[in-house]
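[step 3/7] fold_predict: job queued, chain A
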Amino acid sequence: MRRILAAVAAAGIACGTASAAHADPGGFSYTSDAGAYPFEGSASWTAGEVTAWEYGDAVKVNAETPDGWDWARLELSAPAGQQLHEGTYSGASVREPSSPQATTPSFIAFRGTRADPGGACAAPGATADFAVTRLARAADGAVTDLDVTFVLHCSAAAATRGEAHFHR
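[step 4/7] structure written:
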């Protein structure tokens, strides 16, 4: 009898954990090594402060406080001619905003505040690794669910590690 009760309790705990993970409310957060750019230190935004959409060749993730004071944006692209999908993209080129889609996966990162418009990582040799573990689109193509983790190396010495989750 004790074994049965222990098994039922363990199953309940496992189901509770799975339910909590599935109920991820979303958000955006990162932590940077000293000297990283354009992200510095660490920051996070809640689910209501994150949006995601697809425009042209990129899936864009925007995080912004309600007053517009503090913001960050990622742009994730598959190689030219392909649509971004779930998967791991290693050694993605970090390209400048408004540049054409690359033949390799690419990544654009912006960071700023109302007091400091900030900038984007555009250093020669900058790379990023990112993993899209969930990407769902509605019938009209609108992004409805997105889970992504990333590591950005804007310089060889410093990295930014983060994640973004959007669920409509």
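[step 5/7] annotate
The first helix runs from residue 2 to 22.
Residues 30 and 138 are 28 Å apart (CA to CA).
exit 0
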